[in-house]
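Q: A reviewer asked whether we had any structural model of the full assembly, not just the individual parts. We don't, so I'm hoping you can provide one. Inputs are below.
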Amino acid sequence: MSLLWLRFALGCYFVGLVYAFVALTRTSETFGRIALHAASMGMVFHFVSLTELFLSGQIVWASVHNSESLLAFLSMAFFMVIYAIYQTTSPGVVVFPIVFFLTFVAAFGEQPVLLTQFVSNKGWLIAHIILIFTGYAALVLSFGASLLYLVQERRLKAKKPTSLIGFLPALEVIDQIGYRSLLLGFPFMTLGLLTGSVVAVTTYGRVDFLDPKILLSVLMWAVYMVMVFTRWNSGWRGRRAAFLATFAFVAALAAWAANYFSAIHRFGA
Amino acid sequence: MRYQLIGLNHKSAPLEVRERLAIPESRLPDTCRELTSYPGIEEGLVISTCNRVEIITHTANGHADLRGFLHDHFHLDASTLDAHLYEFREKDAVRHIFRVASSLDSMVVGEAQILGQVKEAYATARAVGAVRGQLDQLFSRAFAVAKRVRTETAVGSSSVSIASVAVELAKKIFGSLHGKNVFIVGAGKMSELAARHLMAHGCGSIFVANRTYERAIGLAQKFDGQAIKFEDLYATCDRADIVITSTGAPHAIFRREHGEQFLARRKNRPMFFIDIAVPRDVSADMAKLDGIFAYDIDDLQQAVSSHVADRRKEAERAEAIIAGEVEKFEARQSTLDVVPTIVSLQDHLETIRQAEIDRVRGRMGQLTPEQEIAIEALTRGIINKVMHTPITTLKSAARESEATTVVDVVKRLFNLPVKGKEVSVEASAKKEEAGKKTEVGTQR
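A: Here is a predicted structure for the entire assembly that you could use as a starting point for your response.
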């Protein structure tokens, strides 16, 4: 049943995906509204799917399937918060495709499960997953914002502010969206890594820093911290910030991919 | 469609005349009442804004003396007024109202305020009972048309002058302008205007620097701002988010190194340079810096002209929408015009049928129910066959200009009761005769 709801949600997010592509070529407020409604409806289905899963008691948080679904949901929630504050759907251009992709994989993909049977403290594990994914979701949004910043900056520099993609919010607004997501995401990511370490220590007795998963996660966290620091200290934005955000995003992807070859944080069959 | 309209606007009358005709809001209800009690006027509505005064009416016969009303109401003689007035009837009046509501007749085409003003005027007139069926239909349609124009064209989306383009660009960069600081470098009329626009949109404090310090003080006082010595320009400039520069310097006064300094001190928060100096005050390599957005006079001019061109194109599309809507409105109105005639024709024939059945029934004695039904069916069948062609003709004529003629002919042929008495029948007969004469005349 949970999977069925998720597929309904996927259908709704598909509208968002189409919007993301259409919005690149022309402005349509009506379509923006439709996409927003569809996305909200998708979130409702998605929420039902997650709740049902949780209540069924069969939840395996650490399955790729469930965690991707959770990440998609959290990203969408972030998007909605941003919408509530800034009244703009434009981050959707980046967020919708990512959410669609994650939900798609969650709804149809193979479902390997992380080998967590040795984990003794399930509470820490759940905290770890939720914190990390909130951090990821914030990173996704901040990455999206930094790309939009680049686009808007180019347009203003090209002296063609009346041209396409007129729906983008003001440069400083995009900047704020990105920075706030970054600031918000950082503590989650940090706490997520800390809880992860707690789980590792209680399970294996130590943290193996040479394990690819941990190495890449620490690298991602370091990039994240550099981003927050450069922004806070010297106000990096535009190209440099986008470069860092892309790097952090790639690091996050790599950390995720590490699940396939890590010794301690690994997908089983 | 006996709509009749008289009015003047910013194009037809100078401000002095418009001022004398402007009706304060508090007096609008009385004016509407006065209007509807004027001979020949059934419904009336008054729009009075700083750019226009319009009297829109639905009249009893299409020929009310609206000029007379204006003369009486404003106690003005014809010589001061008449040259500035325009008058529209029927279809043209409908078109005019559609254009006004859609802001195509406005001084700044596409400005949104006018629709609100028209809606208020409508509400006022409605409240005093001066607007009923006919004007109600007209204005409901006008509001729908205005909405269509607004959503289907971009006529209301962009602003025009350099100063407002500058404001728009600043908003593209900063979002809200609240609390943003403005630096005027080189006191000039144009920079003053741009600054005024920016302040009107919420900008915070203003700094002014000028080679002649006294002039800087003078301008700063106007804005309640702060005068800066020209030597201190580079040290203070980073405090501003928006810099309007228009010095007469022969070379750029803002160069790349300055830009880098500013950005470093501002922690890379963006700066917007409005460079209206010729030759330019901001060097090209400084404009390339990330976080520096410099628009020179040509860029601004281009933005303005692209807006104007866009707007003209959009206005053309809007006009096309309105033309279509006027046709539709007219068609619907005239269909509505023939409906009463059709109904009274049906009533008339039904009365005859009933009377004839009653008359014959006495002679036929007792009838079986089957016979009753047969007689009903027979008589109804005859009536319907006879009526078919006249009704179809009326309906199709309604969509053409000859509607009134056909309606009148039908009314005369069947001796139907005529609203507005026999006058209109006679008038149409005369019209027909006149028409025939001209036809004959042209044939000769």
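A: Points you may want to mention in the reply: The interface with chain B takes residues 152-153, 156-157, 159, 161-162, 169-173, 233-240 of chain A (CB under 8 Å). Residues 113-269 of chain A form one domain.
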